[in-house]
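Continuing from the previous page of notes. For each protein in this section, the sequence appears first, followed by its structure tokens. Read the first protein now.
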Amino acid sequence: MGTTQAAVDDAMRRALDLARRGPAHGPNPRVGCVILAPDHTTVLGEGWHRGAGTPHAEIAALADATARGHDTHGATAVVTLEPCNHTGRTGPCAQALLDAGITHVVHAIPDPGATSGGGADALRAAGVTVTSGTRADEALQLVHHWHHALTTGRPWVTLKTATTLDGRVAAADGTSRWITGPQARAHAHTVRADVDAIAVTTGTALADDPALTARAADGSLAAHQPVRVVVGHRNLPAGARLHGPGGELLHLRTHDVTAVLAELQAREVRPLLVEGGPALAAAFLAAGVVDEVHAYVAPVILGEGPAAVAPFGVSTIAAAPRWRTVATHRLGDDVLVVAGPTSQEH
């Protein structure tokens, strides 16, 4: 690897690290940017996107370069995502880079957005050298929820289950607290804090009276609270915990999974966590829209009680959806299995 190429690769690695400082939730992707001097030996500025409505990574990096007293004419911008080419909550980054005199842009992956994409072509048309593909796999993994939503037209769906060893989510008398232990429950709250929305049925809301909040280790509300989505026609009691502190409450009076996903996509929900109950899990599986499963398994055996997933049309083993194990984690006495379909977009 040549000196210049190595410097750009190092800058992209740094840009990815910067991008990870941005929020995992929200409608916008996590993006980082590093501005290199024309000879690629000096970092002139760096920045990352801090969430919807804040400056994009390129703008933040250019501002940092200005604050350091550097001239960016002839410089190279190394960005984890193709610079945007539209005016939304902020202005187009492609134009900002042109105005700053940037002559070379290196980006990891293209922007698939119908309105936000096209920055690379605009830059090339203005005479800027544009290079794509540096550390593309890492960059795509970093924004895969957002990328999935833009390319498929629906949120990334994670199905969460918490079961006994024999696959039960409650005892025969309906009791279900607590199947998993404190470490597994704490981990589940970290997942909630990284998603845009959590969905349950009205049946689960009425039976369990959940708060559907994301909580820190000390029990306080996490800084980010996902939208609490209740699917079904029945009314919620005025005193339900879902009306209490936490994220926005959204009651979708439908049983149509497609309608639920369309509404959430319109609200710019990127990752969606489906938590319960068995009927909702079955509906999402039957619709073929589950992208990942988080299966928490506790060393408990009940022998009877409701299963994690209601019947959804699989009558023979050959017809069962096959998944691949992405990761396993031991959480106290419990185990979390993270699984995805055998073929899926990342």
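Done with the first. The second protein uses the same format. Note its length before scrolling.
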Amino acid sequence: MKNQARMIKSQDGNKLAIVNPNAAGIDIADTEMQVCVPEDRDGENNRRFGSFTQDLNTIVDWLKDCRITTVAMEATGIYYLSLFLKLQDAGIDVLLANPQDVKNLSGRKTDAADAEWLMVLHRYGLLKPCYQPGNVARQIRNLTRQRSNLIRMAEKEVQYMQKAMEQMNIKLSTVISDITGLSGRKIITAILDGQRDTYALASLAESNCKASQEEIALSLEGTWDEDLLFMLKQSLDAYDFFLSQVSDCDTEIEKLLSLYGARIDSANAELVRCKRKKSRSKNAPKMDIENFAYQLWGVNVFEIPGLKDTAVMHLIGELGHDFIDKFESAEKFSSWCNLAPNNKISGGKILSSKIMKRKNPVGQIFRTAAAPLARDKGEMGNYYRRMKAKSGALQANVATAHKMAKIFYTMVKNKVAYDASKVGLNERELTERKIAKLERALTRLKNAS
């Protein structure tokens, strides 16, 4: 898969060399697989197979009989995964290609033509592989994505709870920021148990609640409709169910992380915990992600401002421990994350530098982690605010996420600690620059007068 396209000299001039002579192409679909091998390997070199497990085993056996050592296929949804894993288990190298990079030539489009085109491109080394983590990391990725789905469904039930109370004109969500917190949960449980005295309900709120008991009591005067109370109870039960599912998911993720860390033969020094204050969100995983990440990468990535438990857990699943071997530089890594400008140049001029309209899960993680840095007091926060003043909030978010991704890659690749001085200017230097700029402006005004 490392073979790249190259030119060779011949009597007819320069021409492309075949760098993968034992290559095949597979066009993936839900119900069938079209497989093409070189013509000299079989009389019927372009065959159609089904998508059942028996058919996939037949494909693997046929490819081995045809002496195929590497295969190219499109990353089509999740339909490729079963065959992808079987080919890997059989020792056949698999290159997953972006469908945008393998568009067929103009003309009649068929599955057989697509499979042959994939084979031709792969034989000449003209395909770029998509990044795929190892099997254990993929399992972690599946569970972290499932965990995110469960949290989204739990949040949806909270909205249904708010809707049911709003229809009863119970304004609890206007005086308590989180109705699933300690105070809100006690009040809702008491309501469902039959308590209707608003002052008795308000007294259940915690002492650190910002709203007074009088305000809470006024917000709880409602109609108490039986159908809406039933809906409220079902939404609360569903919310509890999804939270229990999240807890089960965390337990399974922790098992996989322990297994993954045991497989990595690393001689890392003892972990030095991040001294920076870490605020944990309500939905943060209840496990030592900091230690697991250090086992895999050999550095404490929690030192990077903005990266917290949930973000790092998702990065482990999306990237695995050896992602630095697949990207030659921090610039290529950030470009893969879709955080680098997509410069379109013609005639020596930049026509456009917009970010491509595609979603990369790793890029989304860094962008989400960069958003709260607008209030950060350190160098990364200074950089975010400087970019925001220059280009706006959206561009500042992308630029900060881009810097975070490059720092993350550099730390893991070079096994170095986070260095805030490499981020940008600190508050004192920024203030000195502003003062110097204002002094120069004042001098110009004096000279003009």
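What the second structure shows: The chain has a mean pLDDT of 87. The first helix runs from residue 53 to 65. We return to this in next week's lecture.
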